[in-house]
Amino acid sequence: MLLSLHYVIIATLCYYHYIMLLSLHLITRISFPFSIGHRHQQTTAKRVEEVEFDGPCMKTEVPGPRSKILAQQLESIQSVVQVNFFCDYEESKGNYLVDVDGNRMLDVYTQIASIPIGYNHPALTKVMTDPKNMGTFVNRPALGMMPPEQFSEKLVNGLMAVAPKGFSRVQTMACGSCSNENAYKAIFIWYRVRAGVLSFFFQVPGCPDLTLLSFMGGFHGRTLGCLATTHTKAIQKLDVPSFDWPIASFPQLRYPLDQFERENAREEARCLEEAEDLIVKWNQKGRHVAGVVIEPIQAEGGDNHASFDFYTKLRGITKKHGCAFLVDEVQTGGGSTGKFWAHEHWGLDDPADIVSFSKKMLTGGYYQKDSFQPDKPFRIFNTWLGDHTKNLLLTEVIKVIKTENLLDQAKRSGKVMLEGLYDLQDKYPHLLSKARGIGTFCAIDVKDEDTRNLLLLKARNKGVVLGGCGTQSIRFRPALVFKEHHAHLFLDIFNDAITELK
């Protein structure tokens, strides 16, 4: 009897000891999501390297065994053709992405340029665990009709705090595609309302035969209207009906730029003349060009650049012909070029009528001039009109960018990256060419698509996550917390991958 009682007492003590350890573990996970020893909990302004790893650590090839098992499980539910590998986002920190097989990789792609200040930044963890925000996270509000009390305040402190010059209005959306899709609608409504002053009563009501002019190599989204202005890979548009809208050539610059100044100037002049000629011809045949849409750097299409002078003259053409000018900053916005908005590099007083955004901005949407505000309710509308939880996070992201001077950091890190890419293309001229970029928004061309894809895999298995664009380019899209030492580390690993490729 005494022996049985003894076992019961021991079991009870073990149980309570287990409960205490479990409680401590849960408190640690909530209050100290990275590790107890770090000082990052003192203030949101602490720098991310305090919680970061010291470098890549590879245990398997990528995808590893666990990723492959998960891919098989997912395949019965949805397509996995585009899945690279599965990630452990709780263990990922700063500039490092960890996969489910325990491989730790330097992420120079950041979920297609959509992670602004790295993984699990303490400032964002603090927002997520703040009890005052729980109502917003648990009860996702329909911003279109019933926004929360602090909605306007968060817009002022978030999106409007970084609004491009000349903009006092913002329309929130969920993603880049729906941002552009609704911006197109706003342009068409604006064009009709403006034209209606003189001719509304003489036009047939219903769907007007208006058009948008876009550029070859541009990518603006995968929804139906956006696809009509997207001209990158054929597979993106295959089997999908499209609008018959004008498409202009985008300058194909020759590199190095300083050796081909005259040729590039002629190329840009040709493209500008073609764009204006298209506007005139389409207007003459009654299919008026209501707007022009363009990226400051064609990202998905191959990181294609044009001079700032090209954009200045294109803006002049849109004003001359009464077209709205939509600058698509979905991938270029958020600071990676060293300015918060890439079009700021143009130095114009009136650079755009509408600026769309997403990715590094966490939420989607577009800034618009007052005249592009629809004249009636529900013309630009959906249930969510974005995600207020992302507005909460963006407010903190902007604080971190300002506190840590991350725009200047992007310039410094970008300089190291670009100089390193120049050295690599000089070292491997048969393989690499056309190194280019602004800030950390950089790219380089590989001799052909197959070699590019193989190089991406080799770099990944050595601990660097990269992404391709266009037919043969590699694009580099690190987070804003990407420092000079990260750039040097990336260049060393990238060089090793190229050497192994040879």
TrEMBL record:
Transmembrane segments: 6-27
Catalytic activity, reaction form: (S)-3-amino-2-methylpropanoate + 2-oxoglutarate = 2-methyl-3-oxopropanoate + L-glutamate; 4-aminobutanoate + 2-oxoglutarate = succinate semialdehyde + L-glutamate
InterPro entries listed in its UniProt record: 4NH2But_aminotransferase_euk, Aminotrans_3, Aminotrans_3_PPA_site, PyrdxlP-dep_Trfase, PyrdxlP-dep_Trfase_major, PyrdxlP-dep_Trfase_small
Listed PROSITE patterns: AA_TRANSFER_CLASS_3
GO MF entries: (S)-3-amino-2-methylpropionate transaminase activity; 4-aminobutyrate:2-oxoglutarate transaminase activity; pyridoxal phosphate binding
Pfam families xref list: Aminotran_3
Keywords for this protein: Aminotransferase, Membrane, Neurotransmitter degradation, Pyridoxal phosphate, Transferase, Transmembrane, Transmembrane helix
One GO cellular component term noted in the UniProt record for this chain: mitochondrion
EC assignment: 2.6.1.19, 2.6.1.22
Cofactors named for this entry: pyridoxal 5'-phosphate
Gene Ontology biological process terms, A to Z: gamma-aminobutyric acid catabolic process
Domain of life per record: Eukaryota
Assembly: Homodimer; disulfide-linked.
Similarity comment: family membership: Belongs to the class-III pyridoxal-phosphate-dependent aminotransferase family.
Role summary: Catalyzes the conversion of gamma-aminobutyrate and L-beta-aminoisobutyrate to succinate semialdehyde and methylmalonate semialdehyde, respectively. Can also convert delta-aminovalerate and beta-alanine.
Annotated protein name in UniProt: 4-aminobutyrate aminotransferase, mitochondrial
